[in-house]
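Every protein is a chain of amino acids, and every chain bends into a shape of its own. The fold becomes a row of whole numbers, each drawn from a learned catalogue of backbone shapes. The protein below has been through that process, and both of its lines are reproduced in full.
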Amino acid sequence: MSGKLIVFEGTDGSGKATQTKLLCRYLEQYGIPYRKVDFPRYGQPSAAMVQEYLAGNLGKHPGDVNAYAASLFYAVDRYASYRQDWGKFYESGGLIVADRYTTSNAVHQAAKLPDAERKPYLDWLFDIEYRLLGLPKPDLVVYLEMPTLLTEQMLRRREQSTGAQADIHEQDEEYLEHCHTNAEEVARLCSWSVIHCASGGKPRSPEDIHRQVLELAMKIL
């Protein structure tokens, strides 16, 4: 028996954490058991190489670490998480709600590659994680599409309000735009459910987006 896996995906600053939180609040309200997971798992030993990469200790720009190497850093963290944390709950039929997953590599790492190399990379990525590592495939991927200009504004406001230092992905505006363009193509290739999170040049309200998320989630719950 296996459970269900709902994944929120999107470029940095698109509202993944907010929509994950709103869906979890809904599940709690209606007594639906679930587990919430976030990737990468900062502070855990399995995420050490991810943190080295994002901190710029392996290169100051995202492209300094090739897509395949960076993807393996994240895959190790997901595998450890599955084995140590939520795998048994999922295998017993439980519902998992994930803020990022394998899909994040598809968004961020495939963006480093020329167009002709992206499909072979995606085939490699999903084979590594879903077949060889045995991680579950998502039942629903909700891709939160937000224009890059708006995500950059949100990231800068978040830095100012929290004092947190942006990682090498968040600092590189050109890279963020590449990720956004790539993600639209990946979402189409992988049949992700796309929610456009801006209207008229402004972000839609979290509550408005949440209503659309629920329409999608209820189809698999």
